[in-house]
Amino acid sequence: MWSIFFVLLSLSLPYAASQDTSQALRPYDCIDPQNPSLSSRVEIGKNTTVCLYAGPSGDWNSNIQYKRFSVNLIGDQFSNYHVPGSYDAIVSKGFFNTNATQIFAMSQAALSFQRRYFDATTNFIFPYLTIIVDVVDGVVRGIAWDDACVFCEESKCIPNTYNFDGTAATKETASQPTNGCYFPKDVCDAFHATQNYVCDLKLYVVWTGTDVNGNVLMSSDSRFSAFPPNRIQEKVLGSYNSMLSEVGGWGQGIKDKFGSLFGNN
């Protein structure tokens, strides 16, 4: 059951932007509670904790119910964290019972802006979620979203970044990319029915800056936006084409709709 992956929490969060320069760790900060001294500073090749929060859209300054996932990743190693069963729970079964499900990431005392994972009004799923963790001498100073427009045709990349009061963030106010590519829900339904879980909630993580020993963090050079968009889209389309061969029962319309995301229609 999907629910076993979560512990239900309720917390009043203060407004927070992507840059948090506080060095003092707080009780609800994102560190490994079993090894706080080891995970409270980033060191290349050592465990560092990243947390992923999922919850309803709207104002997070008030008490809301949300889910928190914590995972130890290897510092400065291009990583991804897949939440098993998340598409089925959030999209298919409406776990949060809301018009939209939004997520944000946290590490140490820094947190990102929010991004939408599922919009029930438009029936869009945003599967491309990559954070860039900015570190100074092992202390996480900020978390920014990578440019997610490299995955689709420019016209299919739409605004998808939000403040914690529920308002939309702009590229100018957030000082980072704010748009993202989406999949229509019926395309994701077809993938999911054939046990291809590409629309499950997944977070990619890279680091930049310096670790606790002053060593330069290099994994941000491997982020998706560091490569030409045409190469990324060719790779994405190529990998999904094999999946599309398995969704024949869903009709040519599904394949055409998927191809349109890459300007093939």
List the helices and strands and how they pair.
Blueprint: E1 8-11, H1 36-39, E2 47-56, E3 64-74, E4 79-82, H2 86-92, E5 100-107, E6 110-111, E7 115-119, E8 124-125, E9 130-136, E10 139-145, E11 157-159, H3 171-174, E12 179-181, E13 183-184, H4 185-193, E14 202-210, E15 216-217, H5 229-244, H6 252-260
Parallel strand pairs: 9-14
Antiparallel strand pairs: 1-3, 2-3, 2-5, 4-14, 5-6, 5-7, 7-8, 8-13, 9-10, 11-12, 14-15
Kindly summarize this structure in a few lines.
With 265 residues, the protein is α+β, with helices and mostly antiparallel strands. It is 18% helix and 30% strand.
Instruction: Quote the distance from N terminus to C terminus.
Output: 39 Å
The chain-level mean pLDDT equals: 81
Which percent bin holds the helix content?
Answer: 10-25%
Main β-sheet description: 8 strands, antiparallel
Q: What class would the helix/strand composition place it in?
A: alpha+beta
Q: How many helical elements?
A: 6
- SSE order, one letter for each helix or strand: EHEEEHEEEEEEEHEEHEEHH
Number of strands: 15
- The portion of residues forming beta strands comes to 25-35%
| Unreliable sequence segments | 1-22
Radius of gyration: 18 Å
Description:
The protein has 265 residues and is α+β, with helices and mostly antiparallel strands. 18% of the residues lie in helices and 30% in strands. It is built from 6 helices and 15 strands. Strands 1, 2, 3, 5, 6, 7, 8 and 13 form an 8-stranded antiparallel sheet that branches. The model is unreliable at 1-22 (pLDDT under 50).
